[in-house]
Amino acid sequence: SIIGAMMVRYFLKQNPKNKIVYGATVSKIVSEMVNLYGGEAIRERVGHTFIQRRLREEGGILGIETSGHYYFRKNFYADSATIGFLVMIDILSNERKSLSVLVKEFSRYVSIPETNFEIENPEEFLKKIAQNFDGYKIDWLDGLTVSADDFWLNLRPSNTEPLVRLNIEAKDELILGRVKKDLINLIKKNNE
Predict the structure, then answer these.
(1) Cα dist from 26 to 32, 49, 111, whole Å
(2) What are phi and psi of 168, to 5 degrees?
(3) How far apart, in whole angstroms, are the C-alpha atoms of residue 98 and residue 119?
(4) How confident is the model over 110-152, as pLDDT tens digits?
(5) Cβ–Cβ < 8 Å for 11, 17
(6) Mean pLDDT, to the nearest integer, of 146-169?
(7) How confident is residue 179, by pLDDT bands cut at 50, 70 and 90?
(8) pLDDT value at position 120?
(9) CB 3.0-4.6 Å disulfide test: which of 26, 46, 112, 164 passes with 119?
(10) What is the C-alpha separation between 171 and 37, in angstroms, rounded?
(11) Helix/strand/coil for 191
(12) Which residues, listed in sequence order, are joined to residue 70 by a DSSP beta bridge?
């Protein structure tokens, strides 16, 4: 996500008002950078097929996944590690800062590593979990996403395995720890 946010700034400085497509589990820093630099942020389901197709449909300039895949309009909307590497080299040479310094500038949030749970009936399970979040902003673009001012979380069925994947991002470690603890307890309770 942080590399993606750096690329957003890089591309939108050169090409303002372009569209950036990003996966539903990408950090908020990406959409914040898109908005800051005058682009249009388009959130999409996680997965190569979904990101690439949406980027092509929208005529976007850049697509971003947390898995480290970056898609480029000038590469026929396909992902390319080589282009991503070259863009990062250009960013580093233009910024004249180390990667670690740049990472600190973009590290506004904390998150957990994606965590997997074996769940027998993911659709019913997600509906049960959602009932615990009255008053929060909820969307169903890719599983269940719950958003608040100081955190967001996403629980989604895997596209490739019989698992439900959990992502949580928060403003600080204290909030992250609390949300993670509460949510894991909720998952265990609803998966018995």
Answers:
(1) 11, 16, 11
(2) -135, 135
(3) 43
(4) 999 999 999 989 999 999 999 999 999 999 999 999 999 999 9
(5) no
(6) 94
(7) very high
(8) 87
(9) 164
(10) 22
(11) coil
(12) 64
pLDDT in tens, 105-114: 999 999 999 9
Do residues 133 and 91 make contact, with C-beta atoms less than 8 angstroms apart?
no
Across the range 154-162, mean pLDDT stands at 90
Q: Please name the amino acid found at residue 17.
A: K
User: Which residue in this structure is represented by tokens 């957003």?
Assistant: 8
Asked if residues 100 and 54 have their Cβ atoms less than 8 Å apart, the reply is no
β-pair type (62-64, 19-23): parallel
Q: How many angstroms separate the CA atoms of 81 and 85, rounded? A: 6
Least Cα distance to 1 among 116, 152, 161 occurs for 152
Determine contact, residues 61/20, Cβ cutoff 8 Å: yes
Structure tokens at 60: 């976007």
CA distance 67 to 25: 10
